Amino acid sequence: MKKLIASLFIVLLMISGVACAQEEPQRVITVSGAGEVSAVPDQASVNFSVDTVNKNAQNAVDENNAIVSKFKATLLDIGIEGKDIKTTSYNFFKDYDYSSEKGERIFVGYRLVNSFEVKIDEIDDVAAVLNKAVENGITGMNGVHFSVSNREELYNEALKKAVANGSQKAESLAQALGATIKSPARVVESGYAVPIERAVYMEKSVAAMDSAVISEGELTIKASVTMEYTY
């Protein structure tokens, strides 16, 4: 009987030891990695608008449509495809101005603001498009947005650099702790980031520009990851 009790006591001690070992907190090294890639933009988009006002509603529409139609025809002539010219807004309303002398609103006319985006696949055509806008009476432009066509490819390159950066940090921390790490136990992409379009805004209105000379520069594509290593 005594031998049986002793054996049970040893078994209980062994089970207790295993449980304690399982409850021991896991040691983890967590690092963040960052990577970036620079690229020269190869495409652009420009937002244009045509604003017309006339006491006669139909005249306001006709004047606006004439300017837009002529400009679009010019764009097609220089190689911009019809699918790359997209209307973004079309606002038609009565316009009023406030008279401080009379203390009331004065009817100015019917106003039509037609806004549209032009996508330019050949970066060398940007200046030509802007110059054609001036020649054809386009009244507004809020900027040139440069971007890249191979977004996914560039982002994946930046992502690889982010992982390499995180691995280097983990190795340095492990060496400082006198620990050994292997492959990461967990890797999390810290937000998806495609190349950020860079907007170029003009200080002068389109109507005041004699010619357009644009420098697209470079875009920086960034990626980041969070990595966990056990030791």
From TrEMBL:
Source organism: Peptoclostridium litorale DSM 5388
Lineage: Bacteria, Bacillati, Bacillota, Clostridia, Peptostreptococcales
Presence of the UniProt keyword Transferase in the record: no
Protein name, UniProt field: 26 kDa periplasmic immunogenic protein
GO BP annotation list: DNA damage response
Keywords from the UniProt entry: Signal
Gene3D superfamilies the UniProt entry points to: Protein of unknown function (DUF541), domain 1, Protein of unknown function (DUF541), domain 2
Cleaved signal peptide residues: 1-21
